[in-house]
Write a structure and sequence with these properties.
The complex is a heterodimer. By secondary structure, chain A is an alpha/beta fold. Chain A contains 12 helices and 5 strands. In chain A, helix 3 links the parallel strand 3 and strand 4. Chain B folds into 2 domains: 241 residues, no CATH class; 112 residues, no CATH class. The chains are: A alpha/beta, B alpha+beta.
Chain lengths: 265, 412
């Protein structure tokens, strides 16, 4: 049986998720033994023609060119898996969705006429069908290998969608919110990072996006109890997953609240 | 390793129970040890092959860890606990056990967060399961400073995990090998309610899991010392080895007073009268809607609960598919995927999950296992990031139900 052909595609992104694949040092050779790495410009200039059995797609859609290219990628791919917050939620660059891109362009660039961009940063699934979305900013190496192993063996990947708190308690961490008063997005955020930040006594930043049953309204009440003002609450929901539906709605509530707070003496 | 450290050959937990204790003049006489004597006790347990797990201060909380010295114990530390709130505080004395429930119970020691159940390898013919005799191989453990509430929790796990048809082999091996040094709770926390649940504050033989020794810390009227209740032969042996003498009568009385004072200082209370029936009748109570607005469905309560035992099994393979394995991990009824069966999630809402957890913990656990699933340690209250208080929710359910009962009673 021929080895499945793997392709890795980049859209608007920082390349960190592709680097996660390259950082699989011990597993990279076994992986190369199981799949044919057919298209991966970050690793090799050699290109094997499509179609591809599995495509990993990093990055969000931010240009008119992207809109066309993602259709081509989809057409050339039997299975399409998005990797990272950009590809699954629009990424940090989706902050443009809350602003005037025309104004940015005129202020930031010496020659704004050279910059062609869309008004909004959108996830891959907004444009083409996606077979699996792997969360994270960046994605977790072990989760990536699990997804690839599952693809190779034709089984479902074992990726949990519960809260970061599950992983945090399994690691034996002391809760940073309860014991230190540190605001933490862990209760509304999907696990997968291994509770990285709380393991170093920091609050969770929500890199993996919302968990399967997120209660952002209740968490916001607690963030306020622990000293955050409306503006801070707005900002913690507007990071790497700002345009994910759940975090978007949570931040929009505080945009309204902040406006009324500012006008109220 | 001496043979007594390994304990019973058969990995099955048995409860001796039934012995009277304390200063009632029955059973072996209490002994007395000072702080160097406690160090000698730790040294003897280590010499007998035990890994001694005791309370330490880590990351701003009392956390169980392997210790070798009494200097690692949280000397002079107490705690302030409330719903969603935990802070260590300096005591004005040098107490080693002057805090309430720590961040975790004994649960992770006997029932680890992850346990490999088996590993297998693909062969020409099919696959083979690799022989594995490692169940509980990390034992034996000696637990130092186990509270009465947590002894009851271990007793519940003994029933749940080893007392039924299919026992948990690794758990049973760890339990059978364990040496337990309990301690009387002297300064209960703001979220404690062991008195309501009938589990504390003083360890009692025959209530909860058996223990070998039980310490009651005395700070006044002499040097820093511990009255030691002897609850097993090997406990007596260890005390003989370290030369622990009989406790003076006034110290035994002083130890009783410590327990009595703690008894009167519970931070929380639960009215358990008819609680199971109340919960069964409250399936449609509006209280569940209210708590669901606050519940984060994060699973913290179930992780810190000393009796919650729900797990999932995760089947994994390596990239080649030649190696496969099954690992059991802690799970929680607060995860949508936990009740997922073909076609969907049975408990899709947070309301349904909280109702399930609380109704099981305080109600249907009694029908299932013959005792309440709650020991009143207060951890689910303290460590809830949304500050949800099971004692307050129980009271709210009762308050919401009572008008109906009154109405029903006064109807002609």
């Amino acid at each position: 049986m021929a080895k499945p052909k793997l392709a890795v595609w980049k859209f608007a992104s920082c390349d960190g998720c592709q680097l996660t694949l390259l950082n699989c040092e011990d597993e990279l050779l076994p992986l190369a033994g199981q799949v044919e790495i057919a298209y991966f410009p970050e690793a090799t200039r050699a290109v094997v023609e499509g179609p591809y059995d599995v495509s990993l797609v990093e990055g969000s859609i931010t240009t008119a060119d992207d809109l066309e290219r993602i259709q081509q990628v989809r057409a050339a791919s039997r299975r399409l898996i998005t990797i990272g917050a950009c590809a699954t939620a629009g990424g940090i660059q989706a902050l443009r969705n809350f602003a005037d891109v025309e104004e940015f362009r005129s202020v930031v660039y010496a020659h704004p006429e050279y910059v062609e961009t869309l008004d909004r940063s959108t996830p891959i699934a907004a444009h083409v069908p996606v077979d699996f979305e792997l969360r994270g900013c960046p994605i977790d190496k072990h989760q990536l290998l699990e997804v690839l192993a599952a693809e190779i063996q034709g089984r479902a990947p074992r990726i949990s969608s519960h809260s970061v708190c599950f992983e945090c308690k399994r690691r034996g961490n002391v809760c940073v919110t309860v014991a230190h008063g540190t605001p933490c997005l862990g209760p509304v955020t999907q696990a997968g990072c291994g509770a990285l930040c709380p393991s170093y006594d920091r609050g969770c930043y929500g890199c993996f996006g919302p968990q399967n049953t997120p209660n952002t309204a209740s968490l916001t009440t607690r963030l306020r109890v622990h000293g955050m003002d409306e503006g801070q609450v707005l900002r913690v929901f507007r990071t790497f997953n700002a345009a994910s539906e759940v975090f978007l709605r949570a931040s929009e509530r505080h945009e309204t609240a902040r406006t009324s707070e500012e006008v109220t003496p | 390793m001496s043979s007594d450290a390994v304990g019973d050959e058969t990995p099955r937990v048995t409860h001796t129970g039934g012995m009277a204790g304390k200063s009632d003049g029955q059973g072996p006489a209490d002994r007395i040890i000072d702080v160097p004597g406690l160090q000698a006790l730790v040294d003897r347990l280590i010499a007998r092959g035990y890994t001694v797990i005791g309370p330490t201060v880590q990351s701003g909380a009392i956390v169980n860890a392997a210790i070798t010295s009494v200097e690692e114990l949280p000397q002079g530390w107490g705690d302030d606990q409330d719903a969603g709130h935990y802070r260590l505080r300096r005591r004005d004395d040098e107490a080693l056990f002057g805090y309430a429930s720590g961040a975790q119970s004994a649960k992770p020691v006997f029932f680890p967060t992850e346990e490999v159940l088996w590993r297998g390898r693909r062969t020409q013919e099919g696959f083979t399961v690799e022989p594995d005799d490692s169940a509980g191989r990390d034992a034996p453990y000696a637990l130092l400073g186990v509270r009465s509430c947590d002894l009851s929790a271990i007793g519940i796990h003994d029933v749940v995990l080893t007392g039924r048809v299919h026992g948990d082999v690794a758990y049973a091996a760890r339990r059978a090998a364990a040496f337990v040094v309990a301690v009387t709770c002297s300064d209960p926390g703001g979220t404690c309610f062991c008195v309501s649940m009938g589990t504390g504050p003083r360890p009692e033989q025959g209530r909860g899991a058996p223990y070998d020794l039980s310490l009651t810390e005395l700070l006044n009227g002499g040097p820093h010392r511990f009255v030691v209740e002897v609850a097993s032969e090997r406990g007596a042996d260890v005390l003989d080895e370290i030369g622990a003498g009989p406790a003076p009568a006034e110290d035994v009385v002083a130890g009783d007073a410590v327990a009595e004072e703690a008894d009167a200082r519970m931070g929380r209370h639960v009215d358990t009268d008819g609680l199971k029936e109340l919960l069964y009748a409250a399936a449609d109570s509006p209280v569940w809607d209210d708590v669901a607005t606050r519940c984060l469905a994060c699973g913290n309560c179930t992780a810190v609960c000393p009796t919650c035992f729900c797990t999932s099994v995760e089947d994994v393979t390596d990239l080649t598919g030649d190696l496969a394995g099954r690992t059991r991990v802690w799970d929680s009824c607060f995860d949508a995927d936990y009740s997922w069966i073909h076609g969907g999630t049975v408990r899709a809402t947070t309301k349904a999950r909280y109702r399930q957890w609380m109704t099981h913990k305080l109600g249907s656990w009694i029908d299932q296992f013959g005792m309440s699933g709650c020991v009143g340690c207060g951890r689910c209250v303290t460590w809830c990031p949304a500050a949800i208080d099971i004692t307050a929710e129980a009271a709210a359910l009762r308050a919401a139900a009572e008008p109906d009962e009154r109405d029903a009673g006064t109807l002609p």
